[in-house]
From TrEMBL:
UniProt-listed Enzyme Commission number(s): 6.3.5.2
Keyword Translocase: no
Keyword Ligase: yes
Boundaries of every GMPS ATP-PPase domain copy: 2-194
Shown segment, full-protein numbering: 201 to 519 of 519
GO molecular function: GMP synthase (glutamine-hydrolyzing) activity
Coiled-coil stretches: none
Lineage: Bacteria, Pseudomonadati, Pseudomonadota, Alphaproteobacteria, Rhodobacterales
Organism of derivation: Paracoccus marcusii
Residue positions binding ATP: S29, G30, G31, V32, D33, S34, S35
Protein name, UniProt field: GMP synthase [glutamine-hydrolyzing]
Length: 319
């Protein structure tokens, strides 16, 4: 009978057979899919695998360091940390149109990935954490919005351009099966249960122009919100939760003084697949406590709102 353990063994056998003694490059995002793919392939072929982690400077608090620690130090997987925050943030300076943001990030992502990947000598394969629903989506909605959702992590067109063959060991799996496989591979539960995070990162949670100052504030506020959610034991009930920093300053009072700082919006939704979503019904106590904490702990924010829009008509992200 079918178990995830036997699926794992079979997948490892197939990877070895396909790759032989050649080298594989894997783009790591820190998300569940690419992480499971990387650990699986590493189990199959060891250091014939090199991961490339493109850090665009739009990650959450400590996220870059955590990914590097986990894969390089914990799993001993050869990992190139492509720290290109200056390039990305520089190119995004003055950009406030959401589509231009996405396209700029997507284009740079591919350039950067290619630059680092081409430094790995003798690589013949590119590994991707493509899932079964991705395969279906890109076939049936070709060109439609569902394709652009993941456009930036599937480094489209790159394999041909670089003369690489694809390795996609998760192609037959659904998301919950990938999580199961992750458990089978010994990935920590805290990692497997992580909320999805979009490829363009904090860029699409910072409507208007992105500045380092705003990103810094956003990271801190987001960390407080997630901490609150974990403390109240709500993390696993929620599909996604995050803070968006609004492109507006508002007046407040703090102690004896007047403040003039950014407003932020909290967003938390339940969903099955991200296609539709409902806002999460936090208690007023939770919301009040969280707003107080964010405003007290995060310099630069003096007003906090809760986004109660469902999808549709809203989207989960703000851009
Ligand atoms: P929306 O905002 O469209 O998001 O309701 C639906 C789901 O997709 C994620 N998302 C993205 N993921 N690249 C990604 O990898 C993207 O450009 C992107 N845009 C949205 C979003 O976080 C949510 O889970």
């Amino acid at each position: 009978d079918w178990t995830m353990a036997s699926y794992k063994d079979e997948a490892i056998r197939k990877i070895r057979e396909t790759v032989g003694d050649r080298k594989v490059i894997c783009g790591l995002s820190g998300g569940v899919d690419s992480s499971v793919a990387a650990v699986l392939i590493h189990e199959a072929i060891g250091d014939q695998l090199t991961c490339v982690f493109v850090d665009h400077g739009l990650l959450r608090l400590n996220e870059g360091e955590d990914v590097v620690k986990m894969f390089r130090d914990n799993y001993n997987i050869p990992l190139i940390h492509a720290n290109e925050a200056d390039l990305f943030l520089g190119s995004l300076e003055g950009v406030s149109d959401p589509e231009v943001k996405r396209k700029t990030i997507g284009r740079l992502f591919i350039d950067v990935f290619q630059k680092y990947a081409s430094q790995i000598e003798g690589a013949d394969f590119l590994a991707q954490g493509t899932l079964y629903p991705d395969v279906i989506e890109s076939v049936s909605f070709s060109g439609g919005p569902s394709v652009t959702i993941k456009s930036h992590h599937n480094v489209g067109g790159l394999p041909e351009k670089m003369g690489l063959k694809l390795v996609e060991p998760l192609r037959e799996l659904f998301k919950d099966e990938v999580r199961e496989l992750g458990r089978e591979l010994g990935l920590p539960e805290s990692f497997i249960g992580r909320h999805p995070f979009p490829g363009p990162g904090l860029a699409i949670r910072c409507p208007g122009e992105i500045t380092r100052e705003k990103l810094e504030i956003l990271r801190k506020a987001d960390a407080v919100f997630i901490d609150q959610i974990r403390k109240h034991g709500l993390y696993d009930e929620i599909w996604q939760a995050f803070v968006a920093i609004l492109p507006v300053r508002t007046v407040g009072v703090m102690g004896d003084g007047r403040t003039y700082d950014f407003a932020c919006a909290l967003r938390a939704v339940t969903s099955v697949d991200g296609m539709t979503a409902d806002y999460y019904p936090f208690t007023h106590d939770f919301l009040g406590e969280t707003a107080t904490r964010i405003i007290n702990e995060v310099k630069g924010i003096n007003r906090c709102t809760y986004d109660i829009t469902s999808k549709p008509p809203g989207t989960i992200e703000w851009e």
